[in-house]
Amino acid sequence: MVASPLADALTGIRVLDLSRLLPGPFLTMVLADMGADVVKIEDPRVGDYLRALPPGKGGIAGRFLAINRGKRSLALDLKNPVARDAFLEMVRKADVVVETFRPGVMVKLGLSYETLAAANPKIVLCSISGFGQTGPYADRAGHDLNYIALAGVLAMGGEADGTPGMPGVQIADLAGGSLWGATAILGALVGRHRTGKGAHLDISMTEGALALLAAEIGNMDCGARPTRGKETLNGGVAGYSVYKTKDDRYLAVGALEPKFWIALNTTIGRPPNVAEIVGKPADQAKTRGELAAIFATKTAAEWNEILGKHDCCVEVILETGELPDHPLHRAREVFFTIDGGEGVGPVLQVRTPLGTPTNPGPPPRLGQHSKAVLAEYGFTPEQIAAFG
User: What is the pLDDT of residues 165-183, one digit of tens each?
Assistant: First the structure.
């Protein structure tokens, strides 16, 4: 397996992760993959809620096993003043704190950014929330679907003039929260190197998802009204769409440019007509119907064999279970396994585009590393024993 050039980029960076569920833990996994020392600070009673969501292996949720590699777990009840003070002592030696509580919770815990910065002026606090730390929705509850609704992302998918389509992955959580959060943290660390000062990063998952609409906002500013099912890239043209095959599989067709459109139609035995690429809605519907009839005559495997020999931007839509065995992903070593520990066994992992981490440890059990972590952060055996 080829080592990632970024596998030790963050070696020496200490991250205290107060987050739970998906956005924060995925973000800190990315940091851990780049060599950061990530400690999950978990409630001693329940820990990260994601641990218990089925399905799982060895009593640990599959989702938890997938996004918590290379981290350590410290059980600490931050509502306990002694534990809170211990956390602040850790902040003095840390570089980054990640939290995904509702706005105001850190203040109630006595861990506001001002308090953290007083302990360590270089600390970078990344706060990920649904609607941001300020504004009229700061205290409002929500989930990914709510965030992408207010971001305009949900409205862009689905049939024209129909119900918005439900995304298959958490766009606001991962793209809106995790990835923007990771980007912000890396930027803050670079800025700190220059200024010597930390920062409080306010990452709104709604705004993070909305930023993905930048190109569509550009169209809107020019007088267009972007809408679902009618734009070039969301179902409005026959050359950029999904088609069913004879064996009830699906093909993703992205033959937008003239050369690809000509190659596609020539290969499937249909007269190429470049004007069809920009045809009016009625013409697009006619073209779509003709393509649908042709693609329905062969299986997905047959079309893959035929079209794969030509540059026409068509791929078989893979189901999740097919991903690890696909030749592209095998060749690129996208999937790998780690030892999940006693009772779990091998755990399938997917690397990020940043590369495969070097010998990542298994996802931690709740409180598994409490004594070792506290000792590393300078606590005496007597102090550690006081935590139980």
Answer: 999 999 999 999 999 999 9
Shared domain for 156 and 271, answered yes or no, is no
Note the pLDDT tens digit of each residue in 298-313.
Answer: 999 999 999 999 999 9
Query: How many domains are contained in the chain?
Result: 2
Q: Are 132 and 142 in contact (CB under 8 A)?
A: no
Q: Tokens representing 142? A: 């929500």
The catalytic site residues sit at 143, 173
Please tell me whether residues 32 and 63 are part of one structural domain: yes
74 and 206 share one domain: yes
